[in-house]
TrEMBL record:
Name of the protein in question: Enoyl-CoA hydratase domain-containing protein 3, mitochondrial
Gene3D superfamilies noted in UniProt: 2-enoyl-CoA Hydratase, Chain A, domain 1, Lyase 2-enoyl-coa Hydratase, Chain A, domain 2
GO BP terms, alphabetized: fatty acid metabolic process
InterPro entries: ClpP/crotonase-like_dom_sf (IPR029045), Enoyl-CoA_hydra/iso (IPR001753), Enoyl-CoA_hydra_C (IPR014748), Mitochondrial_ECH-domain (IPR052377)
Molecular functions (GO terms): hydro-lyase activity
Organism: Ferruginivarius sediminum
NCBIfam families, per database record: PRK08139.1 (NF006008)
Its job: May play a role in fatty acid biosynthesis and insulin sensitivity.
Pfam family, one: ECH_1
Length: 268
């Protein structure tokens, strides 16, 4: 990729942010390229997530794509434009760091999917905490078709769908339809196009109505317990619940339930 192209990319609004009702909406904004994840775009997404993580006013995040699709994965023209181990390592390390930023973000993240979500775009859907898709969208990890196995997308994919289903996607590279993605657990639900926004906002508003402190510790505990054995998972989550019970929002929530009123969260 030329210096001129990089400079032009960095001057674009690669990620658009709009905040409303305590919900941050991030839009991947390379519509002509089906929002392919250039190095600059991945860096921009990560920076915006870091800002959101520090913003106590934000309770939930929506990630969507501009134009005709959610995200087509890595920018293949960029990958062929600079053939070097160091550049490739930078691209894939940056992608992994972006995905981890989604997982490590205190706020829940919801993918709003339309069109296609392929390769690293499918990985991003799998990485988000929740995902809603229009029923005509399609998903794939098609790297095998071009000689580049979807190894990093495999990480998120294999943690969301059954093993045989993940291997089917990875080994064949074939597209799956939105209803199948919902059946396999890649997304939470597939809805008609005209219902997509309402379905996504339904999740976002539900999440935003909860204690941000409780969601933060619960999200962290969820991902941590996935990677340990059963007894260690119970040990860890018992400690988490003990600490949670000592939080002011737990006291407020339980008292509000007993007193039959709505809780007033303090975020601590």
């Amino acid at each position: 990729m030329s210096v001129e192209t990089v400079a032009a990319e960095q001057s674009e609004d690669l990620v658009l942010r709009e905040d409303s009702e305590g919900i941050a909406r991030l839009t991947l904004n390379r519509p002509k390229q089906y929002n392919a994840l250039s190095l600059a775009m991945m860096q921009a997404v990560r920076r915006e997530l870091e800002r959101i993580g520090e913003d106590a006013s934000i309770k939930a995040v929506i990630i969507e794509g501009a134009g005709r699709g959610f995200c087509a994965g890595h920018d293949l023209r960029e990958l062929r434009g600079e053939v070097s181990r160091d550049f490739y390592k930078q691209v894939f390390d940056t992608c992994c760091a972006m995905m981890m930023a989604v997982t490590n973000l205190p706020q829940p993240v919801i993918a709003k999917v339309h069109g296609i979500a392929t390769a690293a775009g499918c990985q991003l859907v799998a990485t988000c905490d929740l995902a809603v898709t229009e029923e005509t969208a399609r998903f794939a990890t098609p790297g095998v078709n071009i000689g580049l196995f979807c190894s990093t997308p495999m990480v998120a994919l294999s943690r969301n769908v059954p093993r045989k289903r993940a291997m089917q996607m990875l080994l064949t590279g074939e597209m799956i339809e939105a209803p199948t993605a919902a059946e396999w657990g890649l997304v939470n639900k597939a809805v008609p196009e005209d219902e997509l926004e309402d379905a996504v906002m339904g999740f976002a508003r539900a999440v935003a109505s909860k204690s941000p402190h409780v969601l933060k510790i619960g999200k962290r505990a969820f991902y941590e317990q996935l990677d340990v054995g059963l007894s260690e998972a119970y040990r860890q989550t018992s400690e988490v619940m003990t600490e949670n019970m000592l939080a002011r929002d737990a006291a407020e929530g339980i008292d509000a339930f007993l007193e039959k009123r709505e809780p007033t969260w303090q975020g601590a």
